[in-house]
Amino acid sequence: MKSNYTYEDPRWAHPVTLEKGVAITVMSDGSASYNYWPYPVADVEIPKEVTRLPGSNGEHYLQVNGTNVRLREGPSTKYGYYCYNEENSASVYHNQFIRDNKKPKTDDWGLRAEWVPYYLPKGTRLPYLGKENGFYKTMFNGTVFYISAKYCLLK
After folding, report:
1. Residues 140/147, Cβ–Cβ less than 8 Å
2. How far is residue 75's CA from residue 133's CA, in Å, rounded to a whole number?
3. Coil vs helix vs strand at 54
4. Phi and psi torsions of 44, nearest 5°
5. Residues 10, 23, 141, CA angle at the centre, nearest 5°?
6. Closest of 130, 123, 129 to residue 153, by C-alpha
7. Maximum CA extent, the chain
8. Residue closest to 151 by CA, chosen among 88, 82, 65
9. What pLDDT does 55 receive?
10. Chain mean position to CA 105
11. Cα(46)–Cα(6) distance, rounded to whole angstroms?
């Protein structure tokens, strides 16, 4: 985001603000706006003039340089990785950090869950928020992640 952008989200009683520098998933590209889907059953139109690619103003950014790169909860492979529930993708809370040895069989609502790692496409640009223990810190769709420096380029 080029600047903070506030929108109404039907999940919450108060407006939600996407902060400057946050990377989001653009689901479709209209003539004047992008459609951003903060969760599967609702989308938000964001005016193009408040968006930009990370790095377009000369600041450092990360570029995913591998496939099947896990988005970690902390700066180590000991931390959980970001997953989505393939069984119940319409749930408001269908994403969470999971560990291989502790994959729950149900989601927060007690519904059947099949947790699958969430991967960003190779070439995705993300904001650079620092480096710790061989991992880059970034923010994507409003969540802080750590990505192994082995699978990213710092530009």
Report:
1. no
2. 6
3. coil
4. -130, 135
5. 35
6. 123
7. 46
8. 65
9. 78
10. 23
11. 9
What one-character DSSP code corresponds to residue 145? E
Average pLDDT over residues 13-25: 78
| 3-class DSSP string for 98-134 | ECHHHCCCECCCCCECCEEECCCCCCCEEECCEEECC
Whether residue 33 contacts residue 46, with contact meaning beta carbons closer than 8 Å, is answered with yes
pLDDT band at 42 (very low <50, low <70, confident <90, very high): low
- Could you give phi then psi for residue 102, rounded to 5 degrees? -135, 45
pLDDT digits (tens, 9 = 90+) for 51-87: 877 777 788 999 999 999 999 999 999 999 998 888 7
Q: Is 26 helix (H, G, I), strand (E, B) or coil?
A: strand
**Amino acid type, 47:** P
Of these ranges, 29-33, 43-47, 107-111, 117-121, the one predicted with the greatest mean pLDDT is: 117-121
Residue linked to tokens 């223990």: 133
Question: Would you call 79 exposed, middle or buried from its count of C-beta atoms within 10 A (0-12, 13-18, 19+)?
Answer: middle
**Could you report the per-residue pLDDT of 97-143, keeping only the tens digit for each?**
888 878 777 777 777 778 889 898 899 889 999 999 999 999 887 78
